[in-house]
Specification:
Blueprint lengths: L1 E4 L5 E2 H7 L6 H9 L3 E3 L2 E2 L6 E2 L4 E4 L2 E6 L7 E3 L5 E3 L15
Parallel strand pairs: 1-7
Antiparallel strand pairs: 2-5, 3-4, 3-6, 6-7, 8-9
Pfam families: S4_2
Keywords: RNA-binding
GO molecular function: RNA binding
Length: about 100
């Protein structure tokens, strides 16, 4: 089973198929998804933009892709300059307030 480690909170279905090398392009991903050839967690999925999160399993043509968290458990969020930076505990997207628990 192929494994994809998340860089952000989610990866879109079409991106996951490309990252795993199961399709050659976004257009290929679009067609196989629209044709009902891809399953997410055992259910046929027709949305290329479906957000996959840790624990989801995608299957296509007998190949399985498992979506996992980053090894350090952190997700990355864009900073004001658009760079990916680790999300701080308690920080919500669009909210610059850090809450210490």
């Amino acid at each position: 089973m192929e494994t994809i480690k998340l860089r952000d909170e989610y990866i879109k279905l079409g991106q996951a198929l490309k990252a795993a090398g199961l399709v050659g392009s976004g257009v290929d991903a679009k067609f196989v998804i629209e044709d009902g050839l891809v399953q997410v967690n055992g259910q046929v999925e027709y949305q290329r933009g479906k957000k996959l999160r840790a624990g989801d399993v995608v299957t296509f043509e007998g190949n399985a892709i498992k979506i996992e968290e980053r090894p350090d458990g952190q997700t990355l969020t864009p900073d004001k300059a658009g760079r990916a930076v680790p999300k701080k505990h308690g920080q919500e997207r669009g909210n610059n307030t850090i809450h210490d628990n």
